[in-house]
Structures are given as structure tokens and as C-alpha cells.
Amino acid sequence: MAQARGLRVITYEVGFQRFSAFFTEGDATAYPIQIPKDFVLTPEQDARLDEYLQKRFQGQFTMAGIRFWPEMRGLDQTFLNKAARFRQIVPVFTNVVYDTSQVHANKVYLHMFAWLDSVLDLIRSHPDSLFVIRAHPDEMRPGTAKAEPGERARLGDHKWVEKAAQCRLH
Q1: 63-92 burial by CB neighbour count: b if 16+ within 10 A, else e?
Q2: Cα distances (Å, whole numbers) of residue 39 to 16, 36, 42
Q3: Residue 41's pLDDT band (boundaries 50, 70, 90)?
């Protein structure tokens, strides 16, 4: 809306360095990276990436100096027992509608809930697979903005979880 009225618009994304951010007149989450076809990580770079990912998988990382999810933990035995009854586990990762990276996503579906409706069809047709739908962590993190009323209206104030639960899946 601001750009349509000729106003200057600045977008931002938090950085990986403590208390840092990236500001641009373009899309902060869409920056072209040219990676040569013959590029290979050095053993040191590979080890550094492995160490970073291992920490991130456990919630031991920061964005702009903020540790978002310090309480991450492993799967409990109840879940592992349930999972053992299935041929495979299929993780389904949702996102939040206010995530700035989502400007460049959802090109196939109108919105995340339309995609989840398709996932629900897959769940029904694969009863031997355990589908684990994991909400984006920001849905539960204190102090984060939830969907604006206008966004909820655009999505039809979608009650996907309640609707899916009525299907009496696992």
C-alpha cells in the first residue's frame, strides 16, 4: 500500500550476529546468492556447519542475540512407542502468516490452510504413516504477534485443527 502511494518502504530481517539486522528497500528475505556449480565446503567449513546445525536442532542458537527456544528437548517415550507402530514418520512443518520469509512462499496454494487441506488428504490415504504436524514455534512464544484480524478474515478465520480433529485420525 505504501509503495502504491509512492512512499519509501524499508524491510528488515534479524541477523545471526548479536543484535544485528539487515535493512533494505527491497525484500529483506530475498537476496540472490550465486553459488558456483563446483563449490565445495572445506573440511573446516563443513565441521562448522555441522556444529551449527547440531546446536540449532536442539534450540541452542540465537538470532540477533536472542535465544528463542531454550526449552527444546527430545521426544518422550510415549511418542516413541506410538511412532513404533507406523511404517514411517512424516513431519509436517507449518509457518506463521506473519513470517517475513513467507512473502516468497506459498506459490502453489492460496494460503497455508489450503496446503494443509491437501496434506489432510495424504494423511487419510496413508494410514500406515504417522504424520506429525508441528506448529511454528512462534505460535507459542510469549510476546509474538499472532495473525492480525484482517489476515484471519482473509483466511476465513480458518479452524483447520478442529476440522482435522473431526476426521478422527490417529
Answers
A1: eeeeeeeeeeeeeeeeeeeeeeeeeeeeee
A2: 23, 5, 9
A3: very high
Write the DSSP string, 41-65.
--HHHHHHHHHHHHHHHTT---BTT
Q: What percent of the chain has pLDDT over 90?
A: 25
What integer is the mean pLDDT of 68-76? Answer: 74
Query: What's the burial of 108, exposed, middle or buried (CB within 10 Å: 0-12/13-18/19+)?
Result: exposed
Other beta carbons within 10 Å of 116: 20
More confidently predicted of 155 and 13: 13
- Residue 159 has a pLDDT of 62
What number of other Cβ atoms are within 10 A of residue 17's Cβ?
11
Contact 77, 118 (CB under 8 A): no
Q: Which residues contact 30 (CB under 8 A, 6 or more apart)?
A: 103, 104
pLDDT on residue 85: 95
CA angle 98, 144, 19 (to 5 degrees): 95
> Can you give the pTM of this predicted structure?
0.58
